[in-house]
Specification:
Layout lengths: L2 H24 L2 H28 L1
Helix pairs in contact: 1-2
Length: 57
């Protein structure tokens, strides 16, 4: 996994967790959903990079 892509994935996952928690705290369903979506985006990026690494080996 390239360092830059790994950082992007972790950043998206962290940002999503914060958004989801904030949305839940204030009762904003849209913000909660956006947070979950951001986390999934980070998870997908991370999975893609792991597959690339596996294919290289």
């Amino acid at each position: 996994m390239s360092g830059e892509e790994k950082m992007k994935a972790k950043k998206e996952q962290a940002k999503g967790k914060v958004q989801e928690a904030t949305g839940r705290a204030v009762g904003n369903e849209r913000l909660t959903a956006e947070g979950r979506a951001e986390q999934m985006k980070g998870d997908a990026r991370q999975a893609k990079e792991k597959i690339k690494d596996t294919m290289k080996d």
